[in-house]
Amino acid sequence: MSVLPNLVWLRSFEAVSRLGGFTAAGAELGLTQAAVSTHISALETQLGHQLFERTTRKLELTASGRAYLPSVRKALQDLAVSTDSLFGNRTAGSVTIRAPISETVLIIAPALAEFQKTHPELDIRLLSAIWADTALETGTDIEIRLGTGNWPGVHAEPLGPEKIVPVCHPALAERLKEPADLMDLPHIHILGFDDHWPRFFEAQSLTQPSGHSGVTVDTSLAAVELAAAGGGVALLLGKVAARLAGSGRLTTPLDPGLPSMRTHYLLNRDNSSPRKPAVQRVETWLRDLFAA
C-alpha cells in the first residue's frame, strides 16, 4: 500500500484528463488552478513519468498518461459506488441486501422486479459476495449466507433444508438414466463445495473415479454457465437448480438429489432490536422466496 499515490493527486489527474485543463479541474474540485498543477507535478514526480504534454495552447495526455487513466478512473468510480452503496443517504425505505453472487443472480434478482411492483416505496440495494465474511458488512441490513449457521455475533435464521442435485444441458441429460451414468461424463467442481461429488457417489454406493476429466470453477454461477453450454454435469443447490430447470437452460435428470450439509440463512445483526418496517417487509419476502 505504501507505493500508492496520494488519492487527492489521482482525483486531480482524472479531473484534468476529463476536463482538459487545470482551471476547469480546479473549479470542479473546489481548488485553485495552482493547487491542481501542484498535484499533477507531485504525481508525476512520484511515478517518474510525465503524464501531460504542456504547451501554450493546450494540455494533452502523454502515452504514459493515456495508459494510466483507465485504471485510475475505474478505481475512483469503484470507490464512489462502494461508498454510496454502504454509507450513502439511507432513508426509512432503504434496505441493503447482501447475498452470494449465485443466489443474487439466479434467485433474488429475477424475482426482485415483481416485488418492486408491489413495494415501489422501497429503495433496495442488492450487493453480491463471492466469499462470505465472518461479520456482517457495515451498511448491510440483511444478508443471505450459505453455511452451517455458526457465525458469531449475528442472528442466523435458517431458510429451510437444502439438497444438492445434478444439473446439465437437456441434450446431455438424455445420456443419464441412472446415477452410474455420471461416471462417463465430465464433472464440474466448485471450489468450497469439494465434498459434493464424493458424498454424491458415496450415497449412490458408487466409487468416485480417479483421474476423471472435469473443470473446477470458483462460483456456482460459473458452473451454471459451463453446464448450460454442455460442458459437463454440476452439483448445485436445489433452490438454484429448480429455478434453472424452470427456465429450460438446464435440467435435473436425477432428482430428488442428496441432503446438503449447508443451507441458506437469513442474517441480521441483533435479533433483540426491532428492525425498521422496510427491512421486515424484505425479510418476509426473502423467506417466501427461498421457501418456494
Automatic annotation (TrEMBL):
Designated gene of the protein: gcvA_3
InterPro entries in UniProt: LysR-type_TF_proteobact-type (IPR058163), LysR_HTH_N (IPR000847), LysR_subst-bd (IPR005119), WH-like_DNA-bd_sf (IPR036388), WH_DNA-bd_sf (IPR036390)
PANTHER family attached to this UniProt entry: HTH-TYPE TRANSCRIPTIONAL REGULATOR, HTH-TYPE TRANSCRIPTIONAL REGULATOR TRPI
SUPFAM superfamilies: Periplasmic binding protein-like II (SSF53850), Winged helix' DNA-binding domain (SSF46785)
GO MF, one annotated term: sequence-specific DNA binding
Family of this protein: Belongs to the LysR transcriptional regulatory family.
Domain HTH lysR-type: residue ranges: 5-62
DNA-binding is among the record's keywords: yes
Biological process terms in GO annotation: DNA-templated transcription
Signal peptide: none
Keyword line: DNA-binding, Transcription, Transcription regulation
Gene3D superfamilies linked to this entry: Periplasmic binding protein-like II (3.40.190.10), Winged helix-like DNA-binding domain superfamily/Winged helix DNA-binding domain (1.10.10.10)
Protein name (Swiss-Prot/TrEMBL): Gcv operon activator
Organism: Roseibium aggregatum
